[in-house]
Structure formats: C-alpha cells, structure tokens
Amino acid sequence: MITRLVRRWQDAGGHVIFTRYRNYTGSPFERLIGWYGLHEPPDTDLVDGLAPFVNHPRAHVIDKTVYTALTDEGRQLFAEHGFTDLFICGIATDGCVLKTTIDAFEAGYTPWVLADACASNATRVSPEEVHQAAMMLIPRLVGAAQVISVADALGMLPVAA
C-alpha cells in the first residue's frame, strides 16, 4: 500500500521523505522509558520494500533522534522545496506520526494522516489500542478532515505526465 503511494508520488514528480530513527546511549528513550532499541543497522535500516525508492532524485532521508520529522534538517528541507502539505504515515501512530502531525500543524503546514498506512508497535500494551488512541487524538488536534486513506491520497495526486 505505502510502496504504491510512494511510487505514484514519485512518478508524479513529488518529493518523498523517509525518516529513520536512531537511538543513542543515554537518550531520554533509554533514561526515562527504558527503551534501548534502534541503535544501529540492521535495526535502523528502512524496510526492504521502501529501500529501492531512496535512490530517486526527489527522495530524502532524515535521520532523527526524536519523534518528529520536523527536525532542523526537516524544516530546512520543507522550506527549501516550498512544501505546504505533508502526507504522513508510518510507525508508530502514537509517537512519530502523532508528533510529526502536531508539529506540522503548529508550524503552518497542512498535515494529512494516512490512517490505513499507520500502525503502532507498542510492547507493554496492545499495539492496536495504542494506535486507536492516537487516531482518536489526531482529528481532535488537527481536524477530522486531515485523516484520510491511502486511496484518498492517491486520488489527490496528479497523474504522471
């Protein structure tokens, strides 16, 4: 589903931003949450299905040590290319997706959350419950119309020339 969206977006001339979280020793994730994952490859590699799209001329990879994609590098990239709308999907709905969505909203971008292309990977509670909790908050915090499906997003894309 996501690979189809990425392919269509790139074929239509759009930029695609991939984020890659990298944990570090002594991070708040370790100190406060007790989470020690994602320090190095292969854990930090992009999923195999998306890796081939990274070599596209309008593909960008943001390495981050926080939940949001609106890091200094991300904000610079968005400004450089004049982005106004951000289609957001990925893992985890309750962390990176939620935080990126709220940050985009507060920074004046129009976030579009692709509900059927998001999931959570919680381990201490049910991943589906955590995903649903985030999906309850997103419409309240950024607007119900900003939560769409991949099919909706595909319908918003221009047809490739």
Q: Helix tally?
A: 6
Secondary structure: helix percent? 25-40%
Structural class: alpha/beta
Shape: globular
| Euclidean distance between termini CA atoms | 22 Å
Secondary structure: number of strands: 5
> Mind telling me the C-alpha Rg?
16 Å
Write the layout of secondary structure elements.
Blueprint: H1 2-11, E1 16-21, H2 28-33, E2 59-64, H3 72-81, E3 85-91, H4 93-106, E4 110-119, H5 127-142, E5 147-148, H6 150-156
Parallel strand pairs: 1-2, 3-4, 4-5
Structure overview:
With 161 residues, the chain is α/β, with parallel strands linked by helices. The chain has one domain: 3-Layer(aba) Sandwich (Rossmann fold), CATH 3.40.50.850. The protein is built from six helices and five strands. It has helices spanning 2-11, 28-33, 72-81, 93-106, 127-142, 150-156, and strands at residues 16-21, 59-64, 85-91, 110-119, 147-148. The strands form two sheets. It has a three-stranded parallel β-sheet. Helix 4 runs parallel beside helix 5. The two termini are 22 Å apart. The relative contact order is 0.16. The model has no long low-confidence stretch (mean pLDDT 93).
What tags apply to this protein structure?
Rossmann fold; 161 residues; alpha/beta; globular; three-stranded parallel sheet
Short synopsis of the structure:
This protein has 161 residues and is of the alpha/beta class.
